[in-house]
Amino acid sequence: MNGFIRCMMAFRPAAVRAVMGAWLAYGGSAAAAASANQPIPSIALAVIGDSLSTGAVTHPALAFDGHVLWDIFNGTLSVAPRLADLPANFNTGLKEPLVAPQRLWPTPREFFGGADWIWRNALQSVSRSYLDTAEYSWGYLLATRLGVAPSELAIGGEDGAQVDRMTRHIDRVLAANAGVLPKRLVIFYTGNDLCGASMAEVTSAEEYGRRVANGLSYLLRNAQAAPGGSDIYLASHMNILQLMTSDSILDKKVRAFGGESTCRELRQRGFRPTAEQAEHLRVKPVGGDAASSPEAWYFAMAMPPSPAGFCATLFAGGEGKAREDEIHALANRIRSFREKQVQAVEQASGTAKPQGAEGGLRLHYLEATAGVKFLGEDIAQDCFHLSIAGQAKIAEAMLHGIESLGAKR
User: I need a surface site. Which of 29, 30, 139, 289 has the fewest CB within 10 A?
Assistant: First the structure.
């Protein structure tokens, strides 16, 4: 996603105005406050992770279509969250307009100078203004069931993150809460460590285990427990290979490049338009006779390489034995990742020291997310993020795991 934004920003003045407008409206003051480490009060639940934690592309209006994206960027099409979109069992006590959660900004440790600060915050602002719907994320839905007010939920993750970003995301939570963890922290990195041009570039099980262990060790060394203790949940790596193997998902019909396609067809074409779709997008906008704007055309043409380009192991087309072998290797890697997660939690739990008369830092492994099964309706319109229904399945699994652990304790 970040690569797509970089290309967009480099193309047209109008696109740059949209980006800078988002940053000034959404990010300028908030980013400055975060960088100054000004505490944000009342965090009861924090979540860190990747694009699933931010609700990226979960909004049903988003589609793998350049014209749709340009309409969103120029304000023609709204991606405002709506209470009516939430499942009935996740909207108790909520009212319109939905209260946004706290989105935590990068801390000074994440920057390499002034220009880098501007660039990273601009990227964050674009994602948060146009592509992420945090109110539809699993963290937001989980908070409603745990009785946590939306304003007391903090999201410290970012789109495209691998597990090696855990320490920096932990910094965001601690900086926002004066070094004290909230009562609950959920850690869930879902699939970017499986991305690469080939299996040789996918994170190894040993490296993955080292990164998780380092992240938990860093957390235990630097965090203070909340009064009564803080529960830290490391959610099991989910089965992302369903995107590649489930007929229900592959046969899902989506809007793409001005027409209708299935996820299977998009994957087989490497997420590129057919010649007919490309010509249609070049000549006129979807549903109209006027000439297409250069910005919308650029969105349509810049977008195709996105998933297949940055994550060929998961999203590139291809069939036959070589592809089957790659899927088998990815499945084994996921199993190894889960084993490393369990080992890291067990090792870190042995070093966790109680803080104060009661509580301290308590680490848990949430196995429930490993068994979540997705259908076509659970996948977003881009065929590789989750829809609201899919986010709800993750939230349900986490809730079940958290409640089970609480009953055992």
Answer: 289
CATH code given to domain 43-63+81-111+132-249+312-408: 3.40.50.1110
Residue 27 carries which side chain, given as an amino acid letter? G
Do the beta carbons of residue 361 and residue 229 sit within 8 Å?
Answer: yes
3 state SS for 10-70 = HHCHHHHHHHHHHHHHHHHHHHHHHHCCCCCCCCCEEEEECHHHHCECCCCCCCECHHHHH
pLDDT top residue among 118 and 288? 118
Helix-helix angle 205-222:321-351, to 10 degrees: 30
Using pLDDT thresholds of 50, 70 and 90, give the confidence band for residue 407. low
Helix, strand or coil, per DSSP, at residue 226: coil
% of the chain beyond a pLDDT of 70: 81
Alpha-carbon distance of 88 to 92, in angstroms, equals 7
Is the separation of the CB atoms in 225 and 180 below 8 Å? yes
User: Residue 45 pairs with which residues in a beta bridge?
Assistant: 153, 184
SS3 12: coil
Q: Is the peptide bond before 106 cis (omega within 30 degrees of 0)?
A: no
Closest CA to 311 of 296, 292, 289, 326: 326
Span between the terminal Cα atoms of the chain, in Å:
41
- Can you name the residues that pair with 184 across neighbouring β-strands? 45, 231
Phi and psi at residue 360, in whole multiples of 5°? Answer: 90, -160
The answer to whether residues 297 and 277 touch, using CB atoms and an 8 Å cutoff, is no
